[in-house]
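Sequence in, structure out.
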Amino acid sequence: MKKYDIYGIGNALVDTEYEVDDAFISKAGVGKGLMTLIDSDERKRLLNLLEVEHEHRAIKQAGGGSAANTMVAAAQLGANSFYSCKVASDETGDFFMSDLKIAGVDTNLDAGREEGITGKCISMVTPDAERTMTTHLGITETLSPNELNREALRNSTYLYIEGYLVTSPTAFEAVKETIDIAKEAGVQVSLTLSDPAMVENFKASFDALAELGIDLIFCNEDEARLWTAASNRGEAMARLKTVCGKVVMTCGKEGALVFDGNEETMSVGVPTKAVDTTGAGDIFAGTFLFGLTHGMSFPACADLANRAASLLVSSFGARADQAALRGLL
């Protein structure tokens, strides 16, 4: 029996959320609903625009990063999770490391941290509940094979790869090594496409990962269409099936279309009043992987994940209350 249900790898970030309107997003000059990478100077300018010129105040700060949110969600439900990441030996890094420990997620960070600046993400939420993110990667941009715990990976059932890692050459090397190790050890490989901007700008990198062998793809409908150059959902799903054996495609409030290698099913979404969609895809993947590693079928996993995503988007923040999440089981 494997020690870990899921081994994740991703960019470690601390998220700060603000409520803004569409006019502010336009003034900030970033693509609504997308993730934009920014440097330290651009981050300072955006914070000045938010907090000084427009007097917005942060509504929430929490440990984040896509794969970290996924690992936390799985752990909250009872999965044994390990997360490989990179944060600095600064106050923000202390916060992130403590946050993971409280959530019950094992990590490579106990082995030591370098000097530098821990990655941060500004998440701006508009009245339609859409989240627009700007990320300063900081030290996580140098995530590399040095941050891997190979023994923990070999002793896992699933590997979960965050698609945002394709932006960093060293992180991309780490991802490729995790796939090689997983294949040798009989670990199932899952990949999330993460964001339409990632697929549009780094399609060749995703193609290269697919050639190494992906067992399960997580994506939303927009990401799927971009990667496969499809004109509709059905066409995108058909093409994704040729890339890997299993597919999980979220379709917003409509639910999720899933393929378990034999049968394709649609899991209907759970109606709710959404106020913040930050982390919806992350918690969906975390609860889905929990279900898979605990004997649930693809349709049952999708139903659980839809309910978890509905729970999350009904309040602010990228992570759900543990008691409320466990109440879905």
